[in-house]
């Protein structure tokens, strides 16, 4: 069953048209021979994406179909909800009484997900927490389960693996959606802290949404200096990696999300992680040097001046000089020239 589903997921590709809201569209650009396809929704005629909130009352109503992916401390399943005849993604995070590193973020992730409601954020329909219980080995364990909007196209990481790199016209749409999502989150004092390709998911319409609030937090005061180990260090800003040198103690945490987004956008154009040389080992020391001390930003010669400036404004090492989300939303890169508005 799982194999059949996976096969269909890859074979039934749907060419993306340009819907009213910004989404990944297909430019007919000779430089970029690959069209971007997003796997179609499994075509049971009656299947649809549920739009009514609070419809999932019980986990036993969900039928597990396949594994969509694994993350830090958990697994994401594709599930089917019989009564609404809809597909969802079920994220199961293991909780262990001894594992404070998982429990605290998982609970916080649930709190954040309950608060957010935006077309630019992957929607959470329900959260179920199973308390600790003794198993046969005497260990205590439990889990927390998030019933999420199912994003048929997988993650931007999957898209990049398949298409290698994306044209500016597509990156522009992507950037606008991520910025709208960040603007919404920051407006609620939520900083994501882990913007990276595997946390940007694509639906069947080609719309990109922000997911995974596992290391996010609500800003209540100043930067909490001992938290710079949360998130994926490759996409972390200099002030999070080396707060002493880059003024991290007083940093505006929202600026860290802008940095991460800039890294992702450049990666989309180049087709590989942009801050270290191709083939270079991405260990902590190499990344740290590249992020905190690297002087030269590899920019493709063919990149438009608008794109180059956009990325440079995101990847400004000094967070005080870095562009804000608002500034970037008005940046010339996000203009009709790129079919972005
Ligand atoms: N709502 C969803 N719809 C479809 N696929 C999803 C959904 N959520 C997650 N996935 C898939 O499951 C994978 C694992 O997601 P998860 O959020 O657990 O971890 P991650 O972001 O990949 O890694 P990490 O936990 O290290 O940040 C994702 O990369 C994606 O491919």
Automatic annotation (TrEMBL):
* Entry superkingdom: Eukaryota
Check the record and name the Pfam families matching this protein.
Pkinase (PF00069)
Which PROSITE patterns is this protein grouped with? CRIB, PROTEIN_KINASE_ATP, PROTEIN_KINASE_DOM, PROTEIN_KINASE_ST
Q: Which residues form the CRIB domain?
A: 24-39
Q: What does the entry give for GO biological process? A: response to other organism
Q: Name one GO molecular function term.
A: ATP binding
Domain Protein kinase: start-end pairs: 62-334
Alphabetical list of SUPFAM superfamilies matching this protein: Protein kinase-like (PK-like)
Alphabetically sorted, this entry's keywords are: ATP-binding, Kinase, Nucleotide-binding, Serine/threonine-protein kinase, Transferase
Q: Which reaction does it catalyse?
A: L-tyrosyl-[protein] + ATP = O-phospho-L-tyrosyl-[protein] + ADP + H(+); L-seryl-[protein] + ATP = O-phospho-L-seryl-[protein] + ADP + H(+); L-threonyl-[protein] + ATP = O-phospho-L-threonyl-[protein] + ADP + H(+)
Residue positions binding ATP: 91
Transferase recorded as keyword: yes
Q: What is its EC number?
A: 2.7.12.2
| Protein family per UniProt | Belongs to the protein kinase superfamily. STE Ser/Thr protein kinase family. MAP kinase kinase subfamily.
- PANTHER family under this entry? DUAL SPECIFICITY MITOGEN-ACTIVATED PROTEIN KINASE KINASE 5 (PTHR48013:SF9), DUAL SPECIFICITY MITOGEN-ACTIVATED PROTEIN KINASE KINASE 5-RELATED (PTHR48013)
Q: What is this protein called?
A: mitogen-activated protein kinase kinase
